[in-house]
Design goal:
alpha+beta; seven-stranded mixed sheet
Length: 249
């Protein structure tokens, strides 16, 4: 028994580092595809892989042969289907932060100031604060701005008569990436029917994404914050600042 235990190799520090690097790569890839159509494809491939293994164990030779030939061409199929997504992902690798982009104190104050200005005038607003999971698919639905966040810029975008006032703006760090973006509406039947399109869109995005969404109602000027599929209504500007500053890092 003692001799058997002594035969177990002692892991090197390089082995531990190797495992950590691979685990981190898989984690980043999972975050990259989360909430996109690629995630649905990965789930489908997982089912096919399970069927393939099952066909081997059960001796289903014809099914196993078909799946073996299909999976052999899988890389080429994925490249063709997701060429745009792959190009966008590789382009953003260098620019994406290794950690989540939490709203810093100055940015939180500017977002709250813009929300307060819109609220006082009962002008609707929809401001998405990107966190760790990317929102490039949403950014692509709007107009690229790529400017520094400021109350004046946000007020101009959402002002009545602006061609971009009906969509959402996407904020990452202190940069306003795009405006006039389209967000997915929530399909949750428990969401109140009294909520307008902006509120349902805010909830819908945060159901499958870690972003925070600021909503200003044009009916009564109420400021709300959507997180994880939940809407927190009736926030005051200082409460909004505190909520943004305490977003998980």
């Amino acid at each position: 028994m003692h001799g058997y235990i002594s035969m177990i190799p002692t892991p090197r520090w390089q082995d531990v580092l190797d495992i950590l690097i691979v685990a981190y790569v898989f984690y980043r890839v999972a975050l990259l595809i989360r909430g996109t159509r690629a995630m649905q494809m990965v789930a489908g491939l997982g089912i096919l892989a399970a069927v393939f293994v099952g066909s081997q164990l059960l001796g289903l030779f014809t099914l196993n042969w078909l799946l073996n030939n299909f999976l052999g061409s899988l890389i080429i199929i994925l490249v063709v289907i997701f060429q745009a997504d792959i190009r966008r992902a590789l382009t953003g690798v260098g620019a994406r932060s290794l950690f989540s982009v939490r709203a810093a104190g100055g940015v939180a104050q500017e977002l709250a100031a813009a929300a307060a200005w819109l609220s006082a005038r009962r002008i609707g607003g929809l401001i998405v604060v990107e966190q760790e999971v990317g929102l490039q698919d949403v950014v692509d639905t709007g107009r690229v701005i790529d400017g520094r966040v400021s109350p004046e810029l946000l007020e101009t975008i959402f002002m009545r008569g602006s061609p971009l006032h009906d969509g959402a703006v996407i904020v990452k760090g202190d940069q306003l990436l795009a405006a006039g973006c389209l967000l997915p509406l929530s399909t949750n039947p428990s969401v109140s029917l009294n909520l307008g399109t902006r509120h349902r869109a805010a909830i819908g995005l945060t159901e499958d994404n870690d972003a925070a969404v600021i909503v200003v109602s044009e009916e009564d000027g109420t400021i709300s914050l959507a997180r994880k599929g939940e809407l927190h209504r009736g926030l005051k500007p200082q409460e909004l600042i505190e909520a943004l500053q305490h977003l998980p890092a």
